[in-house]
């Protein structure tokens, strides 16, 4: 009887936690080093007025992948990470624009509509491995360049920010 009760309690508490991994971060705190901060006009902060993500939190969001070449790398690679629209939805952003800041000081303003028009990801992995800083990581706002010729325009290339450290909803 105790085992059955314990099993029920574990199940009851695990269901809400599984749902949080995909929909909300407001009650979750990073365990590892913070690799992304999302701030600005957001609805669901987990740290004052921002959301802080560690790698594990980003990997717990639904993952998406695609094969593409980029203007900055040789050949084609397989990239994986959460869709930007899913990442932003989990902090309460579904319209407007975001300002994406990189470790090297570069920043770009990107309309949120891009993330619904294209399957843009926040790439965490290239060819199954974490992306090192010296190779455009650890996070890269990446468009599926090989899927639509319109993505190869200069305007779109400037929106593919690598070494992402912060996103601010405007």
Automatic annotation (TrEMBL):
<dbReference type="InterPro" id="IPR036374">
    <property type="entry name" value="OxRdtase_Mopterin-bd_sf"/>
</dbReference>
<dbReference type="InterPro" id="IPR000572">
    <property type="entry name" value="OxRdtase_Mopterin-bd_dom"/>
</dbReference>
<dbReference type="Pfam" id="PF00174">
    <property type="entry name" value="Oxidored_molyb"/>
</dbReference>
<feature type="signal peptide">
    <location>
        <begin position="1"/>
        <end position="23"/>
    </location>
</feature>
<protein>
    <recommendedName>
        <fullName>Oxidoreductase molybdopterin-binding domain-containing protein</fullName>
    </recommendedName>
</protein>
<feature type="domain" description="Oxidoreductase molybdopterin-binding">
    <location>
        <begin position="68"/>
        <end position="144"/>
    </location>
</feature>
<keyword id="KW-0732">Signal</keyword>
């Amino acid at each position: 009887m105790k085992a059955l009760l314990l099993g029920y309690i574990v199940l009851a508490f695990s269901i809400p936690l599984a749902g949080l991994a995909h929909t909300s971060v407001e009650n979750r705190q990073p365990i590892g080093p913070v690799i992304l901060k999302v701030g600005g006009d957001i609805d669901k902060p987990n740290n004052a007025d921002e959301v802080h993500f560690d790698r594990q939190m980003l990997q717990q969001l639904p993952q998406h992948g695609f094969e593409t070449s980029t203007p900055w790398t040789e050949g084609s690679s397989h990239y994986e990470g959460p869709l930007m629209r899913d990442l932003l939805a989990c902090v309460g952003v579904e319209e407007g624009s975001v300002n994406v800041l990189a470790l090297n000081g570069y920043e770009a303003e990107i309309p949120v509509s891009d993330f619904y028009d294209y399957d843009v990801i926040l790439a965490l992995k290239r060819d199954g491995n974490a992306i090192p800083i010296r190779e455009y990581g650890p996070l890269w706002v990446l468009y599926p360049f090989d899927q639509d010729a319109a993505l190869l325009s200069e305007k779109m290339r400037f929106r593919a920010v690598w070494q992402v450290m912060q996103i601010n909803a405007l």
